[in-house]
From TrEMBL:
The lineage of its organism: Bacteria, Pseudomonadati, Campylobacterota, Desulfurellia, Desulfurellales. This is NADH dehydrogenase. Pfam families: Pyr_redox_2. It comes from the Bacteria. Its EC number is 1.6.99.3. It is an enzyme of class 1 (oxidoreductase). It comes from Desulfurella amilsii. Keywords: Oxidoreductase.
Length: 406
C-alpha cells in the first residue's frame, strides 16, 4: 500500500507541496487534495482585477484537472474537522478521509466582521468578491478622501517568531500606488487625498532601513500620507475611527482585515487560540508528528506571503518524502521576503531577509520589475500552480545582489 498523503487547501502552499511530491515520488504516494473551491485563487493578481487591468479568470486556476492529470485525487468539499488521534479528516457532508501524512495549507481567514462598519462601508481586495466590489466602485472616486491600511492581527501563542502588527502590507503598498497611478492617468489625482495607515511602528514593518530609505521618496513623490500606530476600529460613511479615538475623513476605506485561523482547527485541538497551527522548523506539528502545516495557516509564517508559503510547503514535503524514501534530503526553510509591488507603469521588487537576521534588504524599481511580475503571474497561471525553476530564482537573487551592490 502506498502512503496516503492528504493536502488540505490548494493555494500557494497546497500546490507547492503537491508538485514537490509529483516531481520526486509521484508513483510512490497516494495524494488526495481537498479544497472547498474548484479554483485556486492567485491573490497577487487581485489588485489588478480590482483596477480592471486583468480579468478575474486570469487569477483562477482550476484545481481538479491538474491533480487528476498526475493520477491523484481531488475532492471539492469543505473540511470541518480533523481527528488527529485517529488520522482522519471530516468533510462538510460527514464523509471521512484517512491519512498517513496530513499537510494543512488552508490559508488564513480574513476576518472582515471584526471591523465595525466594514460590511456597510468598507472595501478590500483580499478575495475576488471584494476585488469585484472595488472594481465597481473605482469609477466614482473623484473628490474623495481614500484611506488604505491593514488592520491589527492578534496572533496566538504559537506565533513564536517575531510577529508583525499587520499580516501583510505588500498589497496595501500595491493598492496605494496603483490608485495614485490610476487617478493621475485620468487627471483626477488632485481631487483625492490618499492616506495610508498601519498598526505597526512603521509602514512595511517587515523590511529594514535600506528598503525604507528607497521607498520613502517614491511614496513622497506619489503624495501619499502615511500614519503609523493606528489600529482600525470602525468604518463609517464619512470617516474611519481608530482605537485611540482619532478619526480620518474618509469616503472610501480599503483595508486588509485582521487574519485568523478557522475555528474548526481550534476545535480539532491542532491550533493555538487564534486558529494558527504550531510547527517546528520542518513545518511539523509538535504533538501530532504526521501533521504538517505550511503557508498562511502556519503560526510561524510571518509575514503572510506567497513566497513564504511555497518555501514552507517545500520543506514540509521534503520531510515527508525523506521519511517515505528513508533518505535524508530535507530542504531547510530559509525565510526571506520576495514580492513585487505593481505601481502602474512600473513595479518595485523587494528582497529582504532583514527580519530574520540576514543582510539582504533590497529594492529594485522600474519597468523590468513590472515585467518580472507579469512573467511570474503568467508562469504560475499557465503552469497550473507551479513555481518558476529554482535556477531562475537563484539567478535573480545573484543578479539583484550584484546590481544593487554596485
Ligand atoms: C490582495 C493580496 C495580494 C497579495 N500579493 C502577494 C504577492 O504579490 N506576493 C506574495 O508572495 N504574496 C502575496 N499575497 C499573500 C499570498 O496571497 C498568501 O500569502 C498566500 O496566498 C498564502 O497561500 P496559502 O496556500 O497558505 O493559502 P491560500 O492561498 O489562501 O489557499 C488556501 C486554500 O485553502 C482553501 N480552504 C480554506 N478553508 C478551507 C476549508 N475549510 N476546507 C477546504 N478548503 C479550504 C481555500 O479555498 C484556498 O484554496 C497577497 C495577498 C493578498 C490578499
Amino acid at each position: 500500500m502506498k502512503p496516503k498523503v492528504v493536502i488540505l487547501g490548494s493555494g500557494f502552499a497546497g500546490f507547492g507541496a503537491f508538485y514537490s511530491f509529483v516531481k520526486k515520488i509521484n508513483d510512490k504516494v497516494d495524494i488526495t487534495v481537498v479544497d472547498s473551491s474548484v479554483f485556486s485563487l492567485s491573490k497577487p493578481i487581485l489588485p489588478e482585477v480590482a483596477f480592471g487591468e486583468r480579468a478575474l479568470n486570469e487569477a483562477l486556476i482550476p484545481i481538479g484537472k491538474y491533480i487528476e492529470k498526475y493520477n491523484h485525487k481531488f475532492i471539492r468539499k469543505e473540511v470541518k474537522l480533523i481527528k488527529p488521534d485517529t488520522n482522519q479528516v471530516i468533510l462538510e457532508d460527514d464523509s471521512i478521509i484517512a491519512y498517513d501524512y496530513l499537510i494543512i495549507s488552508l490559508g488564513a481567514v480574513k476576518d472582515y466582521d471584526a471591523i465595525e462598519g466594514f460590511r456597510e462601508y468598507g472595501y478590500s481586495i483580499c478575495d475576488y468578491t471584494q476585488a469585484l466590489r472595488f472594481l465597481d466602485r473605482r469609477a466614482n472616486l473623484i473628490g474623495n478622501n481614500v484611506v488604505i491600511g491593514a488592520c491589527l492581527t492578534q496572533w496566538g501563542s504559537a506565533s513564536t517568531v517575531k510577529t508583525l502588527a499587520a499580516p501583510c502590507e505588500g498589497p496595501i503598498g500595491e493598492i496605494m500606488f496603483m490608485l495614485d497611478h490610476y487617478l493621475r492617468k485620468h487627471n483626477r489625482r488632485s481631487n483625492t487625498n490618499i492616506t495610508v495607515f498601519t498598526p505597526g511602528e512603521i509602514f512595511f514593518e517587515d523590511v529594514g532601513e535600506r528598503v525604507h530609505k528607497n521607498m520613502e521618496p517614491i511614496i513622497g513623490k506619489s503624495n501619499i500620507n502615511v500614519v503609523t500606530k493606528k489600529i482600525l476600529k470602525h468604518i463609517d460613511k464619512e470617516y474611519v475611527e481608530f482605537e485611540d479615538s482619532s478619526r480620518l475623513n474618509c469616503d472610501m476605506a480599503i483595508i486588509i482585515p485582521p487574519y485568523r485561523g478557522p475555528k474548526f482547527l481550534i476545535d480539532s485541538n491542532i491550533s493555538d487560540e487564534a486558529g494558527f497551527v504550531p510547527t517546528d522548523k520542518h513545518m511539523r506539528h509538535p504533538t501530532f508528528k504526521n501533521i504538517f502545516a505550511a503557508g498562511d495557516i502556519n503560526a510561524t509564517s510571518m509575514p503572510k506571503l506567497g513566497h513564504i508559503a511555497v518555501k514552507q510547503s517545500h520543506t514540509a514535503a521534503s520531510v515527508i518524502i525523506s521519511e517515505i524514501m528513508q533518505k535524508e534530503e530535507i530542504i531547510p526553510f530559509e525565510p526571506e521576503i520576495l514580492c513585487i509591488m505593481n505601481r502602474g507603469e512600473e513595479a518595485t521588487l523587494i528582497l529582504s531577509d532583514w527580519m530574520y537576521g540576514g543582510n539582504r534588504d533590497l529594492t529594485f524599481n522600474g519597468k523590468i520589475s513590472k515585467l518580472m511580475k507579469m512573467g511570474f503571474d503568467a508562469f504560475y497561471f499557465y503552469s497550473h500552480g507551479k513555481m518558476p525553476p529554482k535556477w531562475s530564482e537563484d539567478y535573480l537573487n545573484k543578479l539583484l545582489v550584484k546590481c544593487l551592490n554596485k
